[in-house]
Amino acid sequence: MARKNRISLPDAIYHVTTRIAHRAMLLAGDAIKDKVFRLIYDCAVFSGVEVLACCVMDNHLHIFLHVPKVPEEFWMVPGAEPSSYAFGMRPPECRDPMWPRPSQGTVPLPRPALGFMLGDDELLRRLAAIYGGKRAAAVVEGWHRLEKAGCADRAEAHRERLCRRMYNISQYMKTLKESVTRVFNSPDGAFRHEGALWQGRFHSGVVEPRAAVLATVAAYIAYNPVKAGIADAPWSWRWSSFACALGDGQLSATCRGMYERMLGCAWEEARGRLEAMFADGLPEGLSAEALREMCRRHAREERNMELRAAIDGRRAVTGRTGPEAAGEEDEAEDAPDEAEAGGSGGTWPETPRVRASQAIRVTLGVFRGAFIGSVGFARRMLRELPPGFPSHGVHSARLCSALAWVEPPRRAA
Q1: Is 137 part of a structural domain of the chain?
Q2: Does any domain span residue 206?
Q3: Which of 8, 101, 159, 208 could form a disulfide with 377 if both were Cys (CB 3.0 to 4.6 A apart)?
Q4: Strand duo 203-207 + 371-372: pairing
C-alpha cells in the first residue's frame, strides 16, 4: 500500500522535525552538530527554500521552513505559474496498484509538468552549495559537452531532475537527510556508520503565518535545548539559529535576516520579543500535565460543539425531532459532560488562561500537529489541497486554540 502524500502547499511555512533511528545520540559530538547545522542552510540554498529558524539536538532536528512559490523569472511559460507543491510527488492516480490493465498496461502515469527551469548560472550556484564549486562546475561542463555532441535532450533531462528537487518540502528534507547520511556512512570518514540513519519519515506541520504564532514556534525551537536539560539558556546552545544570530559572520547575518523577515521588525526588537517568550513561565500552580489535559479537554469540547451544530443544522433542514433523530446523538457520544468542561455548560471560556509562549517549555501536541494555528486556518489550508489528497483532520488546530497565541509583555530594561 502506498504511503499517504503529506500536506504540501504553495508558499507555506512548516515546522519540521526528524529523528535519528532508535533515538541514538549520534549527533552528540560538537563537530557533527557544526556540520549538520551548516548543511541545513546549504541544502536550503540548493532547494530554493528559506530556513526561518532551526536547532540541532543530540538525536533530532527542528527546522522552521518557508517553501516559497517559484519566482516568476524561472517560469517556462509567462503567466503560467508552476504548481510547486506537486513537483516532488506522484499524481494522486499513481497511488493505485500497478497491475496490468486492458487499456493502459503497466506503464505508470507521468508526474505533473515541471513548469519552470533555472539557468545554468543559477544551477551552478545552487549545486556549489551542496557539492562544492569544483564538482558543480564539472556537472555544468558535462551538460555543455553533451550539447556539443548532439545529446542536448540528456542534458535537459538532468537539469529537469535537479529542478524537481527544488521548491518542495519533501525534496528539501530528502536532500538534507541524504547529505547527513553521506557524512556518517562515508568509508573514509570518522563515523564509519552503516545502514539507515533516520527514524522513518520526517514530521511536518503547517504553521499559520501570523506574527504571534511564528514568534512562538521560533521561540519553542530555540528553547528545546533548555527543555531537554542540555543548555542553561537558548543563547548558550550554539547549534540553534537564535544563538547563531548573536554571533558574527555570514551565517549569523543570514539568521538575523530570517528573524527580521519572519517577525517584520529589526533584529534587536525581534531578539527582545523572543527573550520575553523565553522568560514567560507557566502560571503558578499549573503543572505540565494539567496544561496537557486542558488542551485535550478543549479540543474535545470544540469538536463536540461542532458536531451538535451540524446535527441542529440537519434537523432544521429535515424537520426531524424527537426519537426519530436519536441516532444522530451517537455522533457526539464522546463529548465531555458539564463537569468535565469546567462547569461551563459545554462552552469553553472566551479567553484562554495560558499564553502559548508559556507552553513552549512543555511537551504538547500543539507544536507537533498537522496544523499549528487556528481551526479556521486549518480548514482554509485543507481546501487548498489538490484533488485526491487524503483527508486530514484539524484536531491539532483545536489543541492550538486552547492557548492564547499572543506575545507576552516585554520586561522593562
Answers
A1: yes
A2: yes
A3: 208
A4: parallel
